[in-house]
Specification:
CATH superfamily of the largest domain: Dihydrodipicolinate Reductase, domain 2
Order of helices and strands: EHEHHEHEHEHEHEHHHEEEEEEEHHEH
Number of domains: 2
Oligomer: single chain
CATH class of the largest domain: Alpha Beta
Bound molecules: 6-O-phosphono-beta-D-glucopyranose
CATH topology of the largest domain: Dihydrodipicolinate Reductase, domain 2
Number of strands: 15
Distance between the termini: 42 Å
Strand order of the largest sheet: 14-13-12-11-7-10-9-8-15
């Protein structure tokens, strides 16, 4: 709990960008409106554009649909703009002096610096922050939130981690993956570790395979230039899907401390098998939607994949031999993120062949039908033994799910790193994904499957799931 002698300043570096307008501004506004922020919390947007305070407020307001004038005025009373470059230490020193000046002598001057910048600016910005003295913790905490992508491969992630560690301690670094702020993703921990009935069957003896799907209906929209250098593996799989895999496959942490949880996630990611290029090609499917090459910012000869599916194995006692199949893509038939745990069939069927009966399946729906669905086989009423698959479903009440950024910004402000990535998790994720990225780059157009926007993606991605198995789609 913060007391009256605490002052908190959230400094958003790169404040004139899309992320600030669409996500950070609305999240801070809602946190302010619901009284969730500590007392004396203010925000400063920093960017090179020559905004006045009031122009910056107008820019932020465009990112919000529903707000009354009085709520808005109360919020913007604590929002300032500071024009300058995030990589210029003199600018940051001036800002530092301005914030210090606004704090009483006895105040704890706590700060969160949020890097809402192009990833290529992260290193220079961290150096400039350090050189300007802004990271000095004598009078208060200094935390730095770093957006994904954190690096573009294992080597660059290691370099960035090592640079970050020269100017900050690991516990000051908040590497954000907004999936970890989603209630439904946090619910994976509760579902697994606050219930005892699933743990005995959560292993290779009962689970046939695990599917993780994060599918999107929109194409690259206005982000063609960024996306073309990134592709689906860097943009989605290395971060969001790897974190989902870690939460599903990790061992129970011994406590709820941030490091107890992150130790277990790091451990399981370090156990994901490293593959070679032959395996990577034979156990992945990649596609590009028709029309992608005409998107603004995209190289007309690009071989960047907008759909990707990979098969991974976790080499632990619990998961030996259980395939984890992951897929993600843009311009698909629907937007849906879900995890399907498919259990093994009973060793013997005493009811004869029945097409309607599927193996038991647990589907954790991250979005848009936030909830959990357990499928089981049931007798159809009437004579005979006709079997059908039914489900026990839970859905989060509509309207109660908060935006992930809201939750994570508050965590960074109060200093709870539980749902942020540690350096070892990031490096493991790149180690797992790099061989697929490299194999795809070497293969170029060969093996890159075109697919129609609005379709399910390359049809043969089904083959990755294995014979007689199918991707789970929609509501499960
Ligand atoms: C971002 C990716 O991290 O996640 C985007 O860069 C993607 O390309 C987005 O659209 C998806 O997030 P969500 O929360 O809408 O599933």
């Amino acid at each position: 709990m913060q007391n009256q002698t605490q002052k908190t300043t959230v400094v958003v570096l790169g404040a004139s960008g899309d992320l600030t307008q669409r996500k950070l501004g609305p999240a801070l506004f809602h946190l302010s409106k619901t009284g969730a922020l500590p007392d004396r919390c203010s925000f400063i947007g920093v960017a090179r554009s020559k905004f006045t305070n009031s122009e910056f407020h107008t820019f932020l307001r465009e990112g919000l649909a529903d707000q009354s004038d009085s709520d808005w005025q109360e919020f913007t009373g604590n929002v300032d703009y500071f024009a300058g470059s995030s990589t210029d230490h003199e600018t940051l020193a001036e800002l530092d002096a301005q914030i210090t000046f606004g704090c009483g002598e006895k105040d704890r001057d706590n700060r969160v610096y949020y890097l809402a910048l192009k990833p290529s600016l992260y290193a220079d910005t961290l150096i400039a922050l350090a050189e300007s003295g802004s990271l000095n913790e004598t009078n208060g905490s200094r935390r730095v939130v770093i957006e994904k992508p954190f690096g573009t491969d294992l080597e660059s992630a290691k370099e960035l981690n090592s640079l970050a560690h020269t100017v900050l301690n690991e516990d000051q670094i908040y590497r954000i993956d907004h999936y970890l702020g989603k209630d439904t993703v946090q619910n994976i921990l509760v579902f697994r570790f606050a219930n005892s009935i699933f743990e005995p069957i959560w292993n290779r003896n009962y689970i046939d395979h695990v599917q993780i799907s994060v599918l999107e209906d929109l194409g690259v929209e206005s982000r063609g230039a960024y996306y073309d250098t990134s592709g689906v593996l860097r943009d989605m799989v290395q971060s969001h899907l790897m974190q989902l895999l870690a939460l599903i496959a990790m061992e129970p942490p011994a406590s709820s401390t941030p490091d107890a949880l992150r130790d277990e996630k790091a451990k399981v990611l370090s156990a994901v098998r490293t593959v070679d290029s032959t395996y990577a090609i034979e156990n992945s499917v990649r596609g590009q939607y028709n029309g992608y090459l005409d998107e603004v910012g995209v190289d007309p000869a690009s071989t960047t994949a907008t759909f990707g599916a990979v098969k991974l194995f976790v080499d632990t006692w619990r998961w030996q031999g259980v395939p984890f199949v992951l897929r993600s893509g843009k311009a698909l038939e629907r937007k849906t993120s879900e995890i399907a745990i498919e259990f093994k069939r009973p060793p013997q069927s005493i009811f004869g062949d029945n097409d309607e009966a599927r193996p038991n399946r647990l589907v954790i729906s991250i979005q848009p039908h936030e909830g959990v669905n357990l499928e089981f086989v049931n007798k159809s009423p009437g004579a005979g033994s006709n079997l059908t698959t039914e489900s026990l479903e839970f859905h989060f009440p509509k309207g109660e799910i908060r935006d992930a950024y809201e939750r994570l910004l508050l965590d960074a402000i109060i200093g709870d790193a539980t749902h942020f990535n540690r350096s070892d998790e990031i490096e493991s994720s790149w180690r797992i994904i790099d061989p697929f990225i490299n194999a795809w780059v070497s293969a170029g157009r060969a093996g890159l499957k075109p697919y129609e926007p609005g379709s399910i993606g390359p049809v043969d991605s089904e083959s990755l799931v294995g014979e007689g198995r199918k991707w789970v789609t929609g509501d499960g």
